[in-house]
Every structure is written in C-alpha cells, then in structure tokens.
Amino acid sequence: MAVLYRVRSIHHLSKCISTKILPGRFYSAQVSSQFETVGFIGLGNMGSRMANNLIKAGYRVAVHDINCNAMKKFSDIGAATKETPTEVAEASDVVITMLPTSSHVYDVYTGPNGLLYGGNLRPRLFIDSSTIDPQTSRKLSTIVSNCTLKEQKEDHWKKPALLDAPVSGGVLAAEAGTLTFMVGGSEEAYMAAEPLFLSMGKNTVYCGGAGNGSAAKICNNLALAISMLGVSESLALGQSLGISASTLTKVFNSSSARCWSSDSYNPVPGVMEGVPSSRNYDGGFASKLMAKDVNIAATSAKEVGLRCPLTSQAQEIYTELCEDGHETKDFSCVFRHYYSGKNEI
C-alpha cells in the first residue's frame, strides 16, 4: 500500500529526483494502441509492482509519488518521473492511481495540482485501483465525466471516463502479475482497458456501473475478515477442548468448514508454511488495513440502512487489535492476540 498520500507542491517535489470470459474469446496482455503512455500515481508495495509490470509489458510509464526514493527507483530504470499529478495527466493517455484512502484519492484527483486540474484533459481514461468506499468512486466518476477532452480523435471517446478497479491477491500477486481486478464503470471503458489489466493481473471481473468495483472489494474483504475470525475462534476453542490445531484443520479442510482462511492462510503458527503465521505474523495484510476496510464496510452498511451485526463485531475486534499494538502485523494474528491461541508444537 502506498505511503500516506497528499499532493505535494512543485517546490517540495523539486527536491526529489475473473476475466470476463465470453465464448470463444481470448485476451492477451498486449500494449493497447489507445493507451501507449500510462501515468501511475502511488508507488507503494502494490503500486510499484503494478507499474513495473506495465513497463515490462512495453508501455511508456510516467510516475509520481510523494516518496522520493520510490520515484528514484523508477527514474533509474528509465521511467519518466513527474512532480505533480497534473504533470502526470498532461503526459499520459490513461492514468492509474493506487492510494491508501478515499481522502487521498479525492485529493489527487481534485486538489491543487490534481489530475483533473483545469477540466480539459489529455487522458481519456482514469483507473483507480485503491480500496475506497463506493460513494467516493461514484462521486469521482461523475466529476470526471463532466470534464472535457483536449483532443477529439476518431474513436468512441467523447469524454473522459473513470473505472474503479481495486485488486485482490496482495503483494505477491502484484509482483507476479497475477492480480484479480474487480471493475466498476462503463463496460465500453472496461473492455478498452482490459489489455492494461492483463499486463498487471490474470483475472478481471466486470462488476457493473460506477462504484461497483469498490463495492465488490469491500464485500470481499469483509467476508475474509469475518471468516478469519470464525476460523481463529474455532481453532482456539478446539485447542481449549484438547484438539490440536493441525487435527482440527484437517477436519475443516475435508468438511463443510473449509475456506481460504483454513486451507490457504491458516492463522495458527506451526500448521502451515509460507504464511504470515509461520513468521510471527510479519508481512501479509496488515491488521490496520483490514480494520480500515471493515470500517468502510460498516459505514457503507449504515448509509444504506442494512443491519450488519457481524460487521460491527469484526470492526470492534480489529480496532482493538490495532489499539493493542498489533496494527502492522498480519490480520491473522487475531488468533494469537485476541483469542490467545497457542502455537502448534
């Protein structure tokens, strides 16, 4: 995840150097002639790897981040570095953003030196892959669609468009180019952007209109948060009743309790290799990020008047986990630090 983002002034920055499968149809990650130059803003753990895969795919990439070191890494491999989001937009056919929160995304698009500065734009398409609330995605989509294009070409682009396209898969998938994109916005824009998505990932799922990609991501992460609590609670109870976590995991994974939190991301140290629980919960998906996503889900549920008691309980647990000093540990540490589960010997 990118570092906390604010639009920097030019003075300060001058110091820095499921694929939608149709019958008989196949996609390849080839450079789209519509989008030869790609702007990328937000070069954190996810964004840096996504931008690097675009470069490997043959796109010309212009980048921006408030982290000078992140900018220099891309300058060293020949990417254009820009001092403001406005300059990225002026140099790009399409701009991708990967930022920490809704407020950062909104500032990067609409703030001083922002992507939409002036309202008469070069980019035909903007793609936001940040995990933010659907309401902000929809608001930005409307703002972008009210802008104009500097150059009208002989194609279907009459005005700029925004796709909300958050991802699933984490840092390892970003590195390997195997992310899944959940995409909201116009289907026409989605189809045009597909070569870009497949340069950074292996699956795309078109979720419908503006904001639906963000909604899908929040619902996915909510289900993951709750399932991890259920698996952790059950394994801790099993230990208290005299059943080893390894034995109970075998039961889960050959029975109806099987899920990703049990068979691919087990929270009990000593049960599974290569997951955060095997390395003192370092790496992975930080508890503070899960808490943020659950908070977004809780707020969204409240706005639409839906009762979500499990969401409220998960919100309390992950918030407490962070307040107790475990915010940078992987969210599966809830097994140890909330349920007081034991290591498998």
Automatic annotation (TrEMBL):
<dbReference type="GO" id="GO:0050661">
    <property type="term" value="F:NADP binding"/>
</dbReference>
<comment type="similarity">
    <text>Belongs to the HIBADH-related family. 3-hydroxyisobutyrate dehydrogenase subfamily.</text>
</comment>
<dbReference type="InterPro" id="IPR013328">
    <property type="entry name" value="6PGD_dom2"/>
</dbReference>
<dbReference type="InterPro" id="IPR015815">
    <property type="entry name" value="HIBADH-related"/>
</dbReference>
<dbReference type="Pfam" id="PF03446">
    <property type="entry name" value="NAD_binding_2"/>
</dbReference>
<dbReference type="GO" id="GO:0006551">
    <property type="term" value="P:L-leucine metabolic process"/>
</dbReference>
<feature type="domain" description="6-phosphogluconate dehydrogenase NADP-binding">
    <location>
        <begin position="37"/>
        <end position="208"/>
    </location>
</feature>
<dbReference type="GO" id="GO:0008442">
    <property type="term" value="F:3-hydroxyisobutyrate dehydrogenase activity"/>
</dbReference>
<dbReference type="GO" id="GO:0005739">
    <property type="term" value="C:mitochondrion"/>
</dbReference>
<dbReference type="InterPro" id="IPR036291">
    <property type="entry name" value="NAD(P)-bd_dom_sf"/>
</dbReference>
<dbReference type="InterPro" id="IPR008927">
    <property type="entry name" value="6-PGluconate_DH-like_C_sf"/>
</dbReference>
<dbReference type="GO" id="GO:0042803">
    <property type="term" value="F:protein homodimerization activity"/>
</dbReference>
<feature type="active site">
    <location>
        <position position="217"/>
    </location>
</feature>
<keyword id="KW-0809">Transit peptide</keyword>
<keyword id="KW-0560">Oxidoreductase</keyword>
<dbReference type="Pfam" id="PF14833">
    <property type="entry name" value="NAD_binding_11"/>
</dbReference>
<comment type="pathway">
    <text>Amino-acid degradation; L-valine degradation.</text>
</comment>
<protein>
    <recommendedName>
        <fullName>3-hydroxyisobutyrate dehydrogenase</fullName>
        <ecNumber>1.1.1.31</ecNumber>
    </recommendedName>
</protein>
<dbReference type="InterPro" id="IPR029154">
    <property type="entry name" value="HIBADH-like_NADP-bd"/>
</dbReference>
<dbReference type="GO" id="GO:0006574">
    <property type="term" value="P:L-valine catabolic process"/>
</dbReference>
<keyword id="KW-0101">Branched-chain amino acid catabolism</keyword>
<keyword id="KW-0520">NAD</keyword>
<dbReference type="InterPro" id="IPR006115">
    <property type="entry name" value="6PGDH_NADP-bd"/>
</dbReference>
<dbReference type="InterPro" id="IPR002204">
    <property type="entry name" value="3-OH-isobutyrate_DH-rel_CS"/>
</dbReference>
<keyword id="KW-0496">Mitochondrion</keyword>
<dbReference type="InterPro" id="IPR011548">
    <property type="entry name" value="HIBADH"/>
</dbReference>
<dbReference type="GO" id="GO:0051287">
    <property type="term" value="F:NAD binding"/>
</dbReference>
<feature type="domain" description="3-hydroxyisobutyrate dehydrogenase-like NAD-binding">
    <location>
        <begin position="211"/>
        <end position="337"/>
    </location>
</feature>
